[in-house]
Amino acid sequence: MRLSHLYPNAWRQEFGDEFEAVLACRPLTVRQFADVAFHAGLAQLTSVRVNPLLAIGWMVTAAMNLIPREVQWSAGWLILVCFVATVVQPRRWLTFALLFFSAIPVSELVRAGHGPIYQTSIALIPALIGSSIGLVAGYSRVTRGSLTG
Amino acid sequence: MAKQRAKPRLGRFGEPAILILLSLSSGTKHGYAIMVDIEGSMGVSLGAGTLYGAIAKLMKLGMIRPLPSEERTRPYEITPEGRAEMATFLETWSPIVRLGEARLA
Fold first, then answer.
1. Which of A18, A23, A42 sits opposite B30 (nearest CB)?
2. Complex ipTM value
3. B78 backbone dihedrals φ, ψ, rounded to 5°
4. Which residues of B touch A19 (CB under 8 A)?
5. Which of A94, A138, B19, B58 could form a disulfide with B63 if both were Cys (CB 3.0 to 4.6 A apart)?
6. Which strand ranges, in their side-by-side order, compose the sheet holding B64-66?
7. Is the pLDDT of residue B83 over 90?
8. Which among A15, A17, A23 is the nearest to B56, CB-wise?
9. Whole-model pTM?
C-alpha cells in the first residue's frame, strides 16, 4: 500500500512521488507509520472546506436541541437535514450523519457544561435514518439521471 | 520593559519547520537529504509525515520553494522570507537560551 494515499488528492499531487521516495529509503517502523497516519489525518482535516450550507444546518441542529421543546422536533429535523444533504451528495452519507449528529452532544455540553453526554448517542438513530433514506433517494436520482441523460 | 519582538509566524510549536529552514540555509536539498542532515547535524529524528507536514506548511507560507527537477525528488531552497523567519526565531530564543545557561551555570 502506498502511504501517500492516506493524504488528500491535492497534497498527493504536490508531494506524493517524493514522499514515497523518502519512505522507500528506510524500513517502515510502527513509529514511522504512526507519524505518517497522524499527519495524513491532519492534512485531511485541514483540506476540508467549510460549506456555508452545512455550517448553517449544523447550527440549526444545535439550536433545535438548545431550545426547550419536545425531543421529536430535534429528531425530525435531524432526519430532514441528513436526508437533504445526502440526496445532494450520496457518497458522503456517513459523513453527513456523523456531522449533524455531532451538533447534539456539542450543544448538550454547551447547555449542561458537563457530562454525561453519552445519552445523546440516541440521536444517531434519526441521523442514520435520514442519511439512509437520502442515500437511496440520492442514488436513484443519480441512476435516473444517467439513464435519461 | 522588554523590547517587543516580531512574532514568529511559525508559532510556538514550529520546531520541525525551523529545523528544515536551518538545514536549507546551508544549501538546497531534497526531502531525504533534509531528513539526514537534521539527524546528523542536529541530532533530531523527523518522521516522513512530520517532515512533509512542515515542508507543505513552509511552502504555503512562502518560506521555501521547490526547484525544478527531472527526478522523482525535488530539491528545495530557502527564500528571503524563510531567512527572515529564522532570524526572528533565533532573535527570540537566543536571550532565553543565554539566560538559561547563565542560571544553570
1. A18
2. 0.81
3. -80, 145
4. 31, 48, 52
5. B58
6. B29-30, B75-78, B64-66
7. yes
8. A15
9. 0.62
